[in-house]
Design brief:
With 87 residues, the protein is an alpha+beta fold. Helices cover 37% and strands 17% of the residues. It has 4 helices and 4 strands; from the N terminus they run E-E-E-H-E-H-H-H. It has a 4-stranded antiparallel β-sheet. It is globular.
């Protein structure tokens, strides 16, 4: 089974330190997961190489959400530690 990735923008900011996800086909950003695009492994790898954004699987994203609820830091600070989040 192929694994798909959400791309998260680390440069653009939303109010309230909300995550901004790439929309399908890179057509802007959204803070709503149900409006976010899903990308293949090749596209995710290209995103992670650039360093301005991060691509995470649904499992990785859910793990971050669990950590975020108990962590004493903002979501942006947590995502900026992206090297620690890679499997």
């Amino acid at each position: 089974m192929d694994e798909y990735y959400y791309k998260i923008c680390l440069e653009q900011k939303s109010s309230g330190d909300t995550l901004l996800f790439w929309k399908p086909k890179g057509n802007g950003y959204t803070r709503f997961l149900d409006e976010a695009g899903l990308y293949d492994k090749k596209s995710a790898d290209e995103t992670n190489k650039r360093g301005r954004d991060i691509a995470l699987t649904e499992k990785q994203l859910s793990e971050i959400a669990e950590i975020y609820t108990v962590a004493d830091c903002s979501m942006t600070e947590l995502l900026n530690k992206k090297e620690e989040l890679k499997e």
